[in-house]
């Protein structure tokens, strides 16, 4: 479903060409639908570049030398801001540059001064950080934490939110099974 959603976004964008930047084989599995939407005989086919080290500048200069303005970025959360910071340094966060970041934890990042850019940066989010469910989950998490600072919704990684949701669903189902006459909310 995630792979289909990613390809649907790119189909909607109607990008004629783009470069996929990825880190490992798992990224390619997730991006298989994205790689298949582009026609193999197109004039400007997609290109793929593997991010093998933390020297983003060399990779970005290769992308820029190919005059590609559209980038699908599928890299780990901790590398996204440094990658985009380097993109700014090499002049790739300006008008006509478009980035589609596939990492679903991107919403947890602090982009700092990168928000002041003319590039179009698109991400997806599965968690509604303003929902009542997230608000109640945050209250529970913050009550059980050993630290002095409360967590905020934009700091909760997707995996933690999904685990919380699964446990909540399980407990609700168990209660309904134990007491079938009770009204479950």
Reported for the largest beta sheet, the result is:
5 strands, parallel
Distance between the termini: 28 Å
Adjacency order of strands in the biggest sheet: 2-1-3-4-5
- Poorly predicted regions are none
Strand content: 5-15%
Number of helices: 7
Shape: elongated
Mean pLDDT: 82
Query: What is the CA-based Rg, rounded?
Result: 20 Å
Oligomer: single chain
Structural class: alpha/beta
**Share of helical residues:** 40-55%
User: What's the total count of β strands?
Assistant: 5
The H/E string reads HEHHEHEHEEHH
Summarize the structure.
This protein has helices spanning 2-13, 25-30, 32-36, 56-65, 77-89, 132-144, 158-178; strands at 19-22, 47-50, 70-74, 98-101, 120-123. The chain is 43% helix and 11% strand. It has a five-stranded parallel sheet with strand order 2-1-3-4-5.
Key features of this structure:
185 residues, alpha/beta, five-stranded parallel sheet, 7 helices, 11% strand
Structure report:
The mean pLDDT is 82. Helix 5 links the parallel strand 3 and strand 4 (98-101). This protein has helices at 2-13, 25-30, 32-36, 56-65, 77-89, 132-144, 158-178; strands at residues 19-22, 47-50, 70-74, 98-101, 120-123. It contains seven helices and five strands. The two termini are 28 Å apart. The longest helix is centred in the C-terminal third of the chain and has 21 residues, at 158-178. It has 185 residues and is of the alpha/beta class.
């Amino acid at each position: 479903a995630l792979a289909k959603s990613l390809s649907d976004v790119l189909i909607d964008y109607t990008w004629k060409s783009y470069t996929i930047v990825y880190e490992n084989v798992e990224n390619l599995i997730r991006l298989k639908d994205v790689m298949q939407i582009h026609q193999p005989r197109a004039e400007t086919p997609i290109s793929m570049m593997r991010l093998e080290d933390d020297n983003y500048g060399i990779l970005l200069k290769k992308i820029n030398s190919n005059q590609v303005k559209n980038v699908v970025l599928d890299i780990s959360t901790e590398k996204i801001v440094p990658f985009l910071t380097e993109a700014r340094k090499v002049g790739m966060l300006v008008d006509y540059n478009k980035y589609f970041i596939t990492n679903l934890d991107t919403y947890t990042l602090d982009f700092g001064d990168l928000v002041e850019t003319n590039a179009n940066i698109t991400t997806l989010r599965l968690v509604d950080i303003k929902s009542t469910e997230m608000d109640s989950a945050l209250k529970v998490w913050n009550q059980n934490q050993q630290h002095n600072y409360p967590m905020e919704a934009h700091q909760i990684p997707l995996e933690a939110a999904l685990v919380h949701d699964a446990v909540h669903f399980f407990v609700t189902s168990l209660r309904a099974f134990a007491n079938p006459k009770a009204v479950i909310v």
